Amino acid sequence: MTSPFSLAGKVAIVTGANTGIGQAIAMSLAEAGADIAAVGRTAPTDTSEMVKAAGRDFISIPADLSSIEPVSRVISETVAALGRVDILVNNAGIIRRADAVEFSEEDWDAVVDTNLKSVFFLSQAFAKHCFAEKQAGKIVQIASLLSFQGGIRVPSYAAAKSGLAGITKALANEWAAKGVNVNAIAPGYIETNNTEALRADPQRSRDILVRIPAGRWGDARDIGGATVFLASPAADYVHGAILPVDGGWLAR
Predict the structure, then answer these.
(1) Which one of 58, 157, 189, 249 is the catalytic residue?
(2) Whether 189 is catalytic
(3) Which structural domains are found in the chain, ordered by start?
(4) What is the pLDDT of residues 89-112, one digit of tens each?
């Protein structure tokens, strides 16, 4: 009997798959049976080796998602190399920090363009491909706790991630009946390079852990497992959901 979580025969695009959460997502999808197209500015050498060791095919597509220039070729290059595309995981993102009263237009545009604009247009290109091929598809957006909260000194990031929650629901409304599932994951505090400074600060780390009912920082593979679920047949009737994977942070 085939597992409802099997991705055998599927091809997944994962943006920002060179390290951290993106790398864990790519590995989790590969272990579930999917071939991987990794998209980003940095060569995902380690991810490539890990995916191939798991017995799956892997390609790297160099692309700077600060603009929508690479969007159409990301889809076409994936199909040309791997034969199809079934899953899109929009994980790539950046953050800029400054007091709101001092926040620059340059930093605002950089974050919104990468974290929201490119995500929307890559989702659009993926959906167009699915509709043209008359095939089902799964889109998983990587949102944030700041899709629900405001944060401090990250106004453009909070705006982009709140917007990402909105377009997840909007796209689900339009595409659910056409066979494309659109959902999102909101990671909590995860042990990655991006949170190293927080974890190295004893007071800040302690304050965070006190708030997390699970009593620990998340592992990047926690996000990978949730992605496999949303990308798999097990989630065929899940549309427009924003799944917190946060150790209970938002429930506190």
Answers:
(1) 157
(2) no
(3) 11-191+219-247 (3.40.50.720)
(4) 999 999 999 999 999 999 999 999
